[in-house]
Structures are given as C-alpha cells and as structure tokens.
Amino acid sequence: MDRPLPALALLARARGRLDLSAPQLLVSSFAALIALGTGGLLLLPGLWNGPGVGFVDALFMATSAVCVTGLSVLDVSTRMTFWGQLWLLVLIQLGGLGIVTLAALAVSALGRRASLEVEEAVGNPATILPSSSPRALVRAVVVATLSVEAAGALALWLSWAGRLGAREAVWPAVFHAISAFCNAGFSTFGPNLVGFATHPPTVLTIAALIIAGGIGFLVFEDVRHRLAGGRRRLTLHSRLAIATTGVLLALGTLLYLLFEARETLAPFGPVDRLVNAFFMAVTPRTAGFNAVDYDALANPSVLLTIALMWIGGSPGSTAGGVKTTTVALIALLLLARLRGRGDVSIANRSVPEATVQRAVGLAVGGLLILVLAAFVLSWTELPGPAQARDRAHFVRLLFEAQSALGTVGLSMGVTDELTPAGRLVIVALMFLGRVGPLAVLESMARRSARHGRWRLAREDVLVG
Description:
- The protein is mostly helical.
- About 65% of the residues lie in helices and about 0% in strands.
- Helix 2 (about 20-45) packs across helix 7 and helix 10 packs parallel to helix 13 (about 270-280).
- It starts with 5 loop residues before the first helix and ends in a 13-residue tail after the last helix.
C-alpha cells in the first residue's frame, strides 16, 4: 500500500486536531508559506549581495511573492543573487498555484482522496464545470500552468537571445514567464521592462502570459471541454469572464492612448504607442510589470489605473481585485433595475440572487478596505502640517494601497520610502487581497447553509 508523504500526513493530523474549516485552512496555508519564505530570506545563506535584510523587509518581500503582488522594497536585480531570485521565484510559483492546490494534487497522485476541507478550499467547481472532479481540476491547473509558463519562457528566450546572449537569456526568460503567468510582476531587470518598451515581442509575450494567468483556470478547463466536444456552449461564468476581460482591455487601450498621447507615450512611434497602451491596459489586472514610469502618468490615467487595479482579473486565477465577474454582475444588476426587473439575467439565464448579493458585498468591501487603508497610510506616512499638504504624495499612497490590495505590484515610486509601519500596512493589504475575499465567500456560504430557509420579519428602509 502506498504511504502518504510525511508532510501531507502531518498536515492531515494537524487539520484533524485543530478542526480547521476551509477558510481557516486557506488562510493558514498562505500564512505558513509566508512564514517559510520570510525565514528563508532571513536565514538561508547566499541569497543577498551585501548585507541581508531586516525582519520587516523580509516579511514584505515574502508576502509580496506568495501573494503574487510584485511590490518590492529593494532592487531584485542587484540586491539578490541567483539563489535569492530562485527562492523568490519558488514562492511566486507556490503562491500562484496555491499551497492547498499543490497538497491536493500530491494526495491525488498517491491515489488517495483529499479531505473535504482541502477540496473545498481548492474550490468546488461543480456549479461551473459539472463534469470535473476537484482532483481532475487540480491536475488540469498544474498541467496548464507549467505548459503555458514553458511556452512563455521559450518565446521570451527567443526574443532575448540576440540581445542578452543565448546562455544569459535563459534565467530571465524563465523568471519572467513564471512571474508574468502568476501575475506577480517581479523582474530581474532593474527598471522592470522599461528597457523593452520599444520591443513589441517582449511586451506582447508578457501581456499574453498575464492575460492567460488572469483569465481563470475554470475558464481554461471550460474552453478545453468545449473544444473537445464535451458541451455545446461555454458556461455563463466563462462567457462573462471572457467578455468583461475583452471590454476592459479594449476600453483601457483606447483611454490610455487618449490620455497619454502627449505624456508617457509621446516618444514612441505609432506601433510602439499602441503596444504600450495595450500593455498598460493589461498590467493593472493584476501583474505589476511596467514599461513606462507610472509616476509620470496624467491624472486621468492614474484614476483609470486605480479603477483597473480595483477590478482585477477573473475568479479562479492568479489575479487579485474584486474580479471581472463581480463587476459584470453589478453592471447587469444596475441595468436590470433601470429596466424595472427584479432578477439579473443574461444570455437566457438568470443569476441566483445570493450570487449577486455576494458580488455587491465584495465590491463594497473592496472600496471600504481601500478607504481605511488610505486613511491609515495618510497617518503613518504623512505626519506633520507640511507633509499633510502634499496632496500628490497622498495620491501615490492611495495608488500604492490599491496596488497592494489588488495584488498588482505597480507603484508610483513610494514603496522603498515607506516607514516600517507603512510597510506592515502594505503587507496586511497584500495578504488580505490574496486570501480575504475567498475566505469571506466560504464563510458566507457556510453561514447561509446553517441559516436554512427561515427569515426574520421584513421592514422597509428608505434609500436614495
């Protein structure tokens, strides 16, 4: 009889003793990985060029990697050795896939069924893909991830071999392919991708990897089933995710072309201007790579970027934000109310009211957390009457807060200037942005199931 891996056996015993729910298992797995990453950055030899880093900076970097954010308080290209970059990349890959997903895959590979808590934390795709078991979905997730990352690494190597050298281009190609697909935004180049702004193959390859990582694994699996003839049409979830992503990319590209024509895009020719405008529409959802200086953006572009970071990618992906389907459902809810309809429907399907209410709750919660975070950062980073009048710096802090909460990684240049208190606030936002919405949804589903069908007496309240 096959014996389970010691680590998985230990995890199963610990879960049984602690009686962890799915949300608790999800949060604790990411917290444990962050703790492991922080310890590695502090204790492993050979990770740093020069002196090591303190606890707060190590915690910041580990959280940013595990939560696939990309914000950095140091220059990865100069401060970290190859082994340091490799450790960071391992944290990015594990964080992108999800440590719980990897545990469920290992159990599946041993021919054993994962616990109900693990399967629930990985995600229950039955309502989206009725024919896919959790174990089959996890296998598909890992195979698709490694395949796309390998293809992306090959494409980047072909693009960079002539510029960097065949041997020297291997590691940057692998690093950036994984970082892009996991929507992390970390780069081994000092100015990120600014040096490749006029190199369309690089920009478009990174953009394709970001979109693939942010569209969602459920959409991947649904499309695969559709192409294999397993069903006649894509699920409503997939159609909403794909359509919303397409609209945001097209609209974002047009708006950046309009707003930045005389600003950051002015030095480029027509082709590079279009490519970079498209890249600017891609990266806020939610990758963090930049080919232009975001501190030089026009004011409308700053607001547009914050909005795109707030939206993020699609559910079941490596991206953060409130998600594309959430925004789509809110737009459909508004349209239904304007038409005087009580239910939300599209493509001859009605969406359950509970799902619409969760979408509204996620959107409102995302805004409230952003406001609270901006308030705290304005207190920790803007002390005194003179700095309190620096409204431009406040906008940079607001931008930083949404970038952390949306696990984006874009910055207007204030990350390494944050105080220790401000860095801890950003750490909390990155962690909450990665696991918070998922844990909240699971908790809401559990409470809803416990409440059953009874309800309290209704009493109306005037609004508006």
